[in-house]
Specification:
Length: 373
């Protein structure tokens, strides 16, 4: 994509980028690739469904016609769709990302599922938002100097091992030729096999440790429980063996017990597992891991640009998540290209929605119904 020099060009290129990334084609005379792209972008900007976007415009294809056009355009194999999304995410990465090692953040992204689970590829987890079943994706993003760029997305299926999920993301980073300085890993990945994978690839990492073991053992707290005691601080070594009956991987990691901030009433320390990092002051581990929480912010922003659907199709769901991530990357890039004032993601989505709505009005000769917010 060429350098963006104006707001209107940014908005035009946004739709063209979505169409190009997903390789949309015309379906009959009623739904062109460009029209399908604009309807999907409108749905994501408004947080509604594809049918909802169709209902907001006059003389547009029916929701069912648009739905069938999208089904026709989605690839039959999920890995192919994943590849298209990741190729699109890589198009706007700054050249500087390829010149020196970067700090990465790896996380799981969960969207609640409330329907019947038969033949639906959702994963179980801790109960949140009234359910313990979730559509799950994992992402890896560059977190460096305030920049948040998603590099890759992968679908996490039921039964997927987290070390295999992480390996797919790291393979994508390696394929993009982005050198890695260190990885800030979500606590959901805290497992011996995951740590063994990072150590085998000689990738420095930092992640929260999970409290495990007995609190009142005959010789005192066992496992990581001993690190979570009030007043504990400093550096330690920890060894443990993976759970399960087979492939019981044994790993050794460094542990940092870091005191909380002065205004935090909790007395237990923050406990981090790490390896491959040079000697640092104790508080460095707390402050460095805090930078990962920019990713949590990006997930809330992802929800702002996420279209809705009741479909059980993992391809349909992944397409919507992919569009949201693509638009967020474009927003970050746009703020670097257009001066002097940067805008929020909400403002970007609003501007894009207004542009798409007016453009559809011009092409299809209808008026916008309702108030665009």
């Amino acid at each position: 994509m060429q350098s963006i020099v104006s707001r209107s060009q940014c908005q035009r290129d946004s739709v063209a980028w979505i169409v190009s990334t997903f390789q949309f084609v015309d379906v009959g005379c009623s739904v062109t690739a460009a029209l399908l792209g604009k309807l999907i972008v409108m749905a994501c900007c408004l947080g509604t469904s594809l049918s909802g976007a169709c209902r907001r415009t006059r003389r547009s294809p029916s929701g069912e016609t648009a739905r069938q056009a999208l089904i026709t355009n989605l690839p039959g194999e999920l890995p192919e769709l994943e590849k298209r999304i990741n190729d699109g995410l890589g198009q706007l990465l700054p050249r500087a990302f390829f010149k020196r090692p970067r700090r990465l953040a790896v996380d799981l992204h969960l969207r609640p599922y409330y329907g019947q689970r038969q033949r639906t590829p959702v994963r179980g987890g801790k109960r949140k938002a009234g359910t313990k079943w979730f559509w799950t994706w994992a992402t890896v993003a560059v977190v460096d100097r305030g920049q948040r760029w998603t590099i890759a997305l992968t679908h996490v299926k039921p039964g997927d091992k987290l070390e295999d999920v992480l390996a797919r993301l790291l393979d994508r980073v390696e394929g993009a030729q982005i050198p890695v300085k260190m990885v800030l890993v979500d606590r959901e990945f805290y497992a011996a096999n995951v740590i063994a994978l990072l150590q085998s690839r000689q990738i420095p990492f930092l992640m929260p440790a999970i409290r495990r073991g007995q609190l009142d053992g005959s010789r005192g707290p066992t496992g990581t429980q001993r690190f979570f005691q009030a007043g504990m601080q400093g550096f330690f070594e920890h060894q443990w063996t993976a759970r399960g009956k087979s492939n019981r991987q044994r790993v050794n990691v460094q542990i940092a017990c870091v005191p909380r901030k002065a205004d935090d009433r909790r007395k237990t320390p923050l406990v981090f597992a790490f390896d491959g990092l040079s000697s640092r002051p104790l508080l460095w581990y707390r402050e460095t891991y805090r930078k990962r929480f920019g990713i949590e912010t990006s997930y809330r922003q992802l929800g702002q640009g996420l279209g809705q659907t009741t479909s059980k199709s993992p391809a349909w769901r992944m397409m919507l998540v992919g569009v949201a991530l693509l638009m967020r990357n474009l927003w970050v890039w746009r703020n670097q290209q257009i001066r002097p004032r940067s805008i929020t993601l909400s403002e970007q989505l609003h501007q894009l929605n207004v542009y798409v709505s007016h453009d559809l009005d011009l092409i299809l000769d209808f008026e916008i119904t309702g108030v665009i917010t």
